[in-house]
Design a protein that fits this description.
The chain is mostly beta strands. It is built from 2 helices and 6 strands.
């Protein structure tokens, strides 16, 4: 994509992804404390807190299908497909970068995925939920969202 458009793209860092998902909120989901399959594509056979059971679609939906963007105008930050992040997986945030940069390690072989999926539990769709897998592993439940890197201005 970068070669074709002549612009730089990359995966978001885990910190960038969560910041973008929350869009200034502190609730489990950018739209509040409960989740329904009216807003998000996840396995509706399961519930989260006071959330009701809902539809299980059994597949992905087109981007923007629910017409529920967060305050930053981003669609489908919860559910549909897990999204790859640039960071390696770590058990905790101890020693994590504080500047939003990716936390990479020579030892780790797994990468972070965020957002939940059409085939998983509603709990996994929370802003703070973390998942991981091996880079290059493919699944019908995995996808990606890219960050467009602003061109550098050279004085």
């Amino acid at each position: 994509m970068s070669q074709r458009t002549k612009k730089e793209y990359r995966f978001p860092t885990e910190a960038e992804w969560e910041y973008a998902c929350r869009a200034g909120t502190t609730t489990p989901f950018h739209f509040g404390k409960i989740i329904t399959t009216d807003y998000v594509n996840y396995n509706g056979n399961y519930t989260y807190g006071e959330s009701p059971k809902g539809e299980y679609r059994g597949q992905t939906t087109p981007v923007g299908y629910f017409q529920v963007a967060n305050a930053f105008g981003l669609y489908d930050m919860h559910g549909n497909v897990y999204e790859w992040c640039e960071d390696d997986y770590h058990d905790s945030y101890k020693s994590a970068p504080t500047d939003g940069s990716a936390w990479l390690s020579d030892k780790n072989t797994t990468r972070i995925l965020r957002g939940g999926s059409w085939d998983f539990y509603p709990n996994n769709c929370r802003c703070a939920y973390r998942y991981y897998d091996f880079p290059g592993f493919s699944s019908f439940s995995f996808g990606l969202r890219v960050v467009s890197v602003a061109p550098r201005i050279i004085p």
